[in-house]
Design a protein that fits this description.
The complex is a heterodimer of chains A (390) and B (123). Chain A contains 11 helices and 13 strands. Chain A is an alpha/beta fold. In chain A, β5, α6 and β6 form a beta-alpha-beta unit. Chain B has one domain: TATA-Binding Protein, CATH 3.30.310. In chain B, strands 1-2-6-5-4-3 form a 6-stranded antiparallel β-sheet, with helices on one face. The chains are: A alpha/beta (390), B alpha+beta (123). Chains A and B meet through α9 and α11 of A and α1, β3, β4 and β5 of B.
Chain lengths: 390, 123
């Protein structure tokens, strides 16, 4: 291997790469200019990246007013804050629902609360199409059910939940609803004014094209949860208690300004293309890859109709980690192998072995898809019969 | 051939600890034949210049391509401190052509006793 092949990056469900040029420029610019954030700096020479990001995200997710968008470090951080906030004051009687599709960002905070004896947890199964049906949710609700937390889009199967249908049922029963939008924000149209959800968590570094260290959540009713972080906000500083106004109620400490500059630029880039075009391209490329890979009998695809550009597969006769290694070193294709931090999905679909995951972004080209399909089929052809000795 | 440095590492779902190592020279095919003296080697020769995987149960596995200057090693975490020096030795001891294995074999035996004792409480 005299030279490494050019990189084909298909791990966008973890972190998108490359970023739009404007994102890199925004980070550079934000670091070069003096910080200007309301209440924290006098003068007005610089950009207020925090407000720009809030307005951009609110516009993309249809949040009104924008102050109901709260910034955090990432989706995991958001989910921890929301779960702890909605369950503040819960004792052993509280019942919480989640699903087998969920990421450890949801499962671990909930299991910790269950271990502490503060909640009773029910994990709902998913159907063959990779979704949890609203009927399954309704059947699991008890008079003690206080909260449901679920992923919007599965990071393993690429399936998208019917959060409208689930949310209506939950609200009919007075149950709060947190949606983990880590995989859907930036990929599909989301109207949080119309959806019956109490909170929606997002991250900046995936399909919103921001950088790591940014994320946030939408909160429908600020009074529905208690803040669990307290500190300086640059506002109402005589008060020794956390301001009740949004978003200061939940945003203590200095913001990640370069990160939020990147997030604003990333979201603005998405808006400049339009979600319809993003979805259309993703659907077409995903369908192409699935069609190609299905033609090779050694390849198993775990969901052949994903709603997101995420494809999980296995190749008979070769370990997933070996497939990932071969793709990376021989073809320059960056995929992801393993459990993808969603262990319960894998118990169902592959006995806990894990999968090879390909995930696309707006920047994935048709040529890259063709090269990836060819490479994976080549590995599959060579993996069977079983590995030979030298 | 020497290991220059490790460039990436992570804890794996199966409990192993993965490290990617950069090497001083491209791996010759003969290296994987050499490794057969110490464990099991499997190959997919038609992929790239040949994909190889060496497995030494309870110690570590090595995977790599002929001609590449990087390998991925998965250590059994509990005994990694005992086996990592032997990994380096495998690379530095390899020579093209006939190799005197006696010194490396002696070392393998000594480390093997300590690995057995650490994992199973006996040799």
């Amino acid at each position: 291997m005299a030279e490494n092949p050019p990189i084909i990056y298909l791990n966008n469900a973890a972190t998108t790469w490359p970023k739009p040029p404007g994102v890199v420029e925004a980070v550079q610019e934000s670091l070069a200019l003096p910080i200007f954030g309301s209440g924290r700096t006098t003068g007005s020479q610089g950009e207020d990246y925090i407000s720009l990001a809030r307005e951009a995200v609110a516009g993309l997710l249809s949040v009104d007013p924008p102050e109901h968008v709260v910034f955090t470090q990432n989706a995991t951080d958001s989910l921890n804050l929301l779960i702890q906030g909605f369950l503040a004051g819960c004792d052993a009687g509280c019942h919480v629902l989640t699903t087998a599709l969920d990421h450890n960002a949801v499962l671990r905070p909930l299991h910790e609360l269950e271990r502490q004896g503060r909640i009773r947890l029910t994990i709902l199964p998913f159907a063959e199409d990779g979704t949890v049906h609203p009927d399954t949710v309704e059947a699991a609700i008890t008079p003690e059910t206080r909260l449901m937390v679920t992923t919007h889009g599965s990071n393993v199967l690429g399936s998208v939940q019917d959060v409208a249908g689930i949310g209506e049922i939950l609200h009919d029963h007075g149950v709060y609803f947190i949606v983990d939008g880590a995989q859907t924000a930036g990929h599909i149209p989301i109207d949080l004014q119309a959806l019956p959800v109490d909170a929606y968590a997002f991250t900046g570094h995936k399909a919103l094209f921001g950088i790591a260290g940014t994320g946030g959540f939408y909160l429908q009713d600020p009074e529905s949860i208690a803040p669990i972080r307290y500190g300086g906000t640059g506002t109402d500083s005589f008060s020794l208690f956390q301001p009740r106004d949004m978003p200061e109620r939940f945003e203590a400490g200095t913001h990640n300004t370069p990160g939020l500059a990147a997030l604003a630029a990333g979201v603005n880039y998405i808006q400049s293309i339009g979600l319809a075009a993003i979805t259309e391209k993703a659907d077409r490329q995903t369908a192409f890859l699935i069609r190609e890979l299905k033609s090779e009998p050694n390849i198993t695809i775990h969901n052949t109709h994903p709603a997101l550009p995420i494809i999980s597969l296995e190749i008979q006769g070769i370990e997933n980690d070996d497939v990932g290694f071969i793709l990376a070193r021989a073809y320059g294709i960056i995929a992801r192998t393993g459990l993808h931090c969603a262990p319960l999905v894998h118990r169902v679909i592959d006995g806990g072995v894990g999968s090879v995951r390909l995930s696309l972004s707006w920047f994935t080209t048709d040529e890259e898809c063709r090269t990836a399909a060819k490479a994976i089929k080549e590995i599959a052809k060579n993996a069977n019969p079983s590995i030979s000795s030298p | 051939m020497r290991i220059l440095r490790s460039v990436r590492h992570k804890s794996c779902a199966d409990g192993s600890f993965m490290k990617e190592f950069l090497l001083s020279d491209p791996i010759p095919e003969g290296f994987f034949t050499y490794l057969e003296n110490f464990g099991e080697v499997e190959a997919l020769p038609n992929l790239g210049e040949g994909f190889y995987k060496f497995e030494k149960p309870d110690w570590f596995s090595i995977k790599g391509f002929v001609g590449d200057t990087a390998v991925e090693v998965r250590f059994k975490k509990e005994v990694m401190k005992l086996t990592v020096d032997f990994l380096y030795l495998l690379f530095t001891s390899y020579r093209e052509g006939a190799v005197d294995l006696s010194r490396v074999k002696q070392r393998e035996e000594a480390v093997g006793r300590r690995v057995q004792e650490h994992l199973y409480g006996h040799t």
